[in-house]
Amino acid sequence: MDVMIDAVRCFMCGKLVADKYEEFTSRMKSGEGPKLILYSLDSRDTASEEP
């Protein structure tokens, strides 16, 4: 039995991430890169960085 526990909050900054899980997984399945998805979902501080 494979069980994966999803994080509710970011371990680094504390932002809520659980509400973005479904969109993240569907976009990963469609072939989009994880870095681009995270930036577009604004899960990271994008003010000083770009993918």
Which structural class best describes the helix and strand composition?
mainly alpha
- Tell me how many strands there are: 0
Stretches with pLDDT under 50, minimum 5 residues: none
Largest sheet: none
**What is the N-to-C order of secondary-structure elements (H for helix, E for strand)?**
HH
Average per-residue pLDDT, rounded, comes to 78
Approximately how much helix is present in the residues? 25-40%
Strand content: under 5%
* Tally of DSSP helical segments: 2
Task: Give Rg in angstroms.
Answer: 12 Å
Instruction: Tell me, briefly, the overall form.
Output: globular
Distance between the termini: 35 Å
Task: List the main descriptive attributes of the protein structure presented here.
51 residues, mainly alpha
Structure, described:
The chain contains two helices and no strands. The chain is mostly helical and 51 residues long. It has a domain of 26 residues. The chain is globular and about 25 Å long. The protein is 31% helix and 0% strand.
Annotate the secondary structure layout:
Blueprint: H1 21-29, H2 34-40
In short:
The chain has 51 residues and is mainly α. The protein has a domain at 19-44.
